[in-house]
């Protein structure tokens, strides 16, 4: 045996070890084996497992915790076009219109790959429904970050703003459920996977890849925690929860406690053989500040106040496993930052300004576009300027009906309004003084905006006419949308990962060559949403990339074995 090494591998954290090259894998005393091994049993991993089982392959999925990952903590939205759900709601959408819109927003993949993603999106919705995921055609007409309960088809991007690019249609298919419904989405996939014979080994962090002498990946080595420790391990995992307010501030301490616990329990190492391939599907690096410092140092300081999506297992370990075998990296500095002006919907009629008093963007833009614009401002400072009428109409939307005020829909905005540094001024000049910004510039900005709003045409940024309203009734309010405002609940998610061959999902080296036996899916890999993202695109990509990797691993293995 010898340890594989590569001087081109980035410096690691303590998550994984370098691969172990086996002299004769066939003679190895394997603890378990299957056709396909999947590292990470979240959205992409469950999809890959189900696809492989449909093809008759045996599957073992390992997860550091109990499974679910980022997908279970998500909104459960899948972006798709030309679906029967859309047709039931009365929309005549097509894959071609979906392609034109995503291409306009930007995607790092080849045109053929993006077309294939769009053309199979309707089929993927049907496939998910065949595995118990529930969608329906209850349609929310306005563009919104996430619809209220009872609505499950909506505009997640900026489709309505670009009818010249593609025919608008609501393509966000939200899984049926109350509140963020990613938990419902994953629960259906998990149940189907178990019913169809997928072997899941929970509480088993993957520590290194196993290869043959030629470098083909033939298995993995995992640290299986004893069953008696699973309850405590689960409890540690749940301490990092993006749905809990202000949880990110404590995340690094919780992560350290969990790593210490894993190191303290009896070390049972399992070597698991993959007869046909290993798929890495263990998420991105949202809970790895070392990675942020390496690829996005501008976000490192804000990470502890951001709502970091995903789960504790999104620590970059899958990416590290891939690079340990020589895998290349792409778009590691691509990051998704959200700043939600709405809900309440009324607030999009306000004016978003920076610390110089200058307007930034059309306020009804997608929350990810708003977030990146705020991130680019000096100090990450931004405020929504509102007049009295708009402010109080928005306040009523937050608190009435009462269910809004105590729900995930209205509570974040209400908390920000009450505790996040909202400022009030009898005049714009007085408000500017409280914000520490140039009063003359703020007055000029608002006056210019009011003129455009009165004319019903935002020539500067293109806000929809229905969201234009002059800010003329004092007193004036500033709703704090600054990046470091912990009550602003800004979301974050990095979208880079391992480079892959786009037809197969096989992990590639920096020179484009393929690492035999190794595949990646979901946020472990560069994908459809690594360049630009909007709600539903990421989970849709986990379905696309998970199915692709499973098919390719099994078909490639058959080709290799053929005479």
Give a structural overview.
The longest helix is centred in the C-terminal third of the chain and has 25 residues. 34% of the residues lie in helices and 17% in strands. The strands form 5 sheets. Strands 1, 2, 3, 4, 9, 10, 11, 12, 22 and 23 form a 10-stranded mixed sheet that branches. A 4-stranded mixed sheet has the order 5-8-7-6. The chain has 563 residues and is of the alpha/beta class. It has 19 helices and 23 strands.
Total of helices: 19
Low-confidence stretches: 1-11, 559-563
User: Tally of extended strands?
Assistant: 23
What level of helicity do the residues show?
25-40%
Largest sheet: 10 strands, mixed
Beta-strand content: 15-25%
N- to C-terminal separation?
A: 29 Å
The residue-averaged pLDDT reads 92
Judging from the principal axes of the Cα atoms, what is the shape?
A: globular
Radius of gyration: 24 Å
User: Structural class of the secondary elements?
Assistant: alpha/beta
Quaternary structure state of the chains depicted: single chain
Task: Provide a brief overview of the structure.
This protein is of the alpha/beta class and 563 residues long. The protein is built from 19 helices and 23 strands. The longest helix has 25 residues.
């Amino acid at each position: 045996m010898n340890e594989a090494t590569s001087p081109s591998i980035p410096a690691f954290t303590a998550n994984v070890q370098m691969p172990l090259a086996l002299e004769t894998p066939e003679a190895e005393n394997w603890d378990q084996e299957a056709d396909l091994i999947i590292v990470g049993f979240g959205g992409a991993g469950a999809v890959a497992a189900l696809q492989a089982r449909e093809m008759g392959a045996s599957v073992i999925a390992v997860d550091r915790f109990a499974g679910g990952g980022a997908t279970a903590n998500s909104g459960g939205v899948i972006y798709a076009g030309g679906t029967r759900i859309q047709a039931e709601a009365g929309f005549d959408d097509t894959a071609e219109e979906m392609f034109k819109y995503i291409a306009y927003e930007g995607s790092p993949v080849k045109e053929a790959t993006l077309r294939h993603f769009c053309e199979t999106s309707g089929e993927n919705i049907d496939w998910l429904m065949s595995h118990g995921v529930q969608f329906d055609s209850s349609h929310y007409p306005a563009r919104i970050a996430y619809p209220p309960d009872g609505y499950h088809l909506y505009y997640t991007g900026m489709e309505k703003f670009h009818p010249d690019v593609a025919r608008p249609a609501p393509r966000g298919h939200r899984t049926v459920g109350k509140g963020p419904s990613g938990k419902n989405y994953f629960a259906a996939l998990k149940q189907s996977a178990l019913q169809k014979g997928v072997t899941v080994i929970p509480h088993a962090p993957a520590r290194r890849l196993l290869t043959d002498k030629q470098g083909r990946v033939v298995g993995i080595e995992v640290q299986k925690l004893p069953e008696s420790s699973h309850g405590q391990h689960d409890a540690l995992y749940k301490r990092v929860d993006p749905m809990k307010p202000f949880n990110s501030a404590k995340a690094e301490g919780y992560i350290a406690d969990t790593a210490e616990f894993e190191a303290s329990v009896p070390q049972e190492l399992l070597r698991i053989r993959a007869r046909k391939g290993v798929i890495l599907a263990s998420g991105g690096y949202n809970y790895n500040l070392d990675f942020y410092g390496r690829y996005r140092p501008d976000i490192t300081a804000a990470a502890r106040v951001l709502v970091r999506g995903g789960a504790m297992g999104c620590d970059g370990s899958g990416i590290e496993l891939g690079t340990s075998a020589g895998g290349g990296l792409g778009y590691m500095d691509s990051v998704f930052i959200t700043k939600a002006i709405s809900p309440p919907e009324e607030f999009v009629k306000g004016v978003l300004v920076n610390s110089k008093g200058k307007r930034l963007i059309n306020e009804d833009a997608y929350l990810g576009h708003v977030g990146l614009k705020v991130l680019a401002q000096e100090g990450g400072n931004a405020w929504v300027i509102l007049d009295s009428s708009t402010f109080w109409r928005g306040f009523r939307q937050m608190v009435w009906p009462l269910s809004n005020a105590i729900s995930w829909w209205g509570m974040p905005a209400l908390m920000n309004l009450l505790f996040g540094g909202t400022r009030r001024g009898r005049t714009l000049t007085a408000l500017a003084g409280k914000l520490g910004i140039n009063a003359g510039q703020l007055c000029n900005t608002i006056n210019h905006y009011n003129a455009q709003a009165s004319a019903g045409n935002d020539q500067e940024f293109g806000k929809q006419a229905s969201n234009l309203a002059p800010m003329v009734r004092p007193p004036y309010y500033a709703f704090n949308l600054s990046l470091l405002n912990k009550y602003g609940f800004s979301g974050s998610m990095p979208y880079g990962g391992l480079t892959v061959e786009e037809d197969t999902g096989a992990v590639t080296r920096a020179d484009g060559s393929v690492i035999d036996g190794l595949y990646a899916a979901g946020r472990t890999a560069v994908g459809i949403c690594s360049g630009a993202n909007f709600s539903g695109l990421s989970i849709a990509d986990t379905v696309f990339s998970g199915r692709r990797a499973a098919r390719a691993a099994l078909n490639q293995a058959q080709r290799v074995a053929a005479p």
